[in-house]
Design a protein that fits this description.
Layout lengths: L1 H17 L19 E4 L24 E12 L9 E6 L11 E2 L9 E7 L16 E2 L3 E12 L16 E5 L1
Antiparallel strand pairs: 1-2, 2-7, 3-6, 3-8, 4-5, 5-7
Length: 176
C-alpha cells in the first residue's frame, strides 16, 4: 500500500510540474527574394569610386564648414520582382563613421583628422551614417536611382586641414 501511495504521489508531482497555462504565441513572417538587386555606383558597378573635387584650406577653417560638393548616384536594378517587399534602399554601414557627427572619418593618416566626408541625400538633407536618418527608401521598381552628395566637412579645429582625405563607405540593399 505504501508503494502504491508513493508511486501515486510521485506521478502527480511529475504531472503537476509539466502543467502550464498558455499565455500567448509568436508568429513569424518573411520573404525570400528571388534574387538580389544589381548595384552600380556612378555606373561603375557595385564597388564604384567617387573623387571629391580639390578645395582650398581656407574654405574649411571653422568647425562645421563644408566644401567640395560632389554628386554621385547609387542605382539598383532588378529589385521590383513580383511579390517582393515594397520599399528598398541602400543601407549604409556604420564602419568608419564618427558616432558624434555621423560622417565618414578620414582614413588617410595625413594628420587632418578634423576633416571628414559628409553625405547628403538628393534633397541635400544631411545623412547620419550611424542611423541612416534622411536616407529615404524608394518604392521597389525595375530601376531605382538614389542621388547623393559628398563633400569635405570640418568636424573640429585641432588638426591640420591640408592633405589627402580618404574614406570607404560600405552598404547593403535593405528591403523594407
Amino acid at each position: 500500500m505504501k508503494t502504491i501511495a508513493f508511486a501515486f504521489a510521485l506521478s502527480t508531482t511529475l504531472l503537476a510540474s509539466n502543467a502550464q497555462a498558455a499565455a500567448g504565441s509568436v508568429g513569424f513572417d518573411g520573404y525570400i527574394t528571388p534574387s538580389t538587386c544589381a548595384v552600380a555606383v556612378n555606373g561603375q558597378g557595385e564597388h564604384g569610386a567617387v573623387t571629391l573635387k580639390p578645395v582650398g584650406w581656407e574654405k574649411l577653417q571653422n568647425a562645421g564648414d563644408f566644401a567640395g560638393d560632389t554628386p554621385f548616384t547609387i542605382t539598383l536594378t532588378g529589385c521590383g520582382e513580383s511579390g517582393a517587399p515594397a520599399w528598398v534602399r541602400p543601407k549604409f554601414a556604420s564602419t568608419g563613421v564618427n558616432p558624434a557627427t555621423g560622417n565618414l572619418r578620414n582614413q588617410s593618416g595625413d594628420g587632418n583628422s578634423d576633416i571628414e566626408i559628409q553625405l547628403r541625400n538628393g534633397t541635400y538633407a544631411t545623412i547620419d551614417l550611424m542611423t541612416n536618418e534622411n536616407n529615404s527608401p524608394q518604392v521597389a521598381d525595375s530601376v531605382m536611382t538614389f542621388d547623393y552628395h559628398a563633400h569635405y566637412y570640418r568636424a573640429g579645429t585641432t588638426g591640420t586641414v591640408s592633405g589627402r582625405v580618404t574614406a570607404k563607405l560600405e552598404f547593403s540593399v535593405e528591403y523594407i
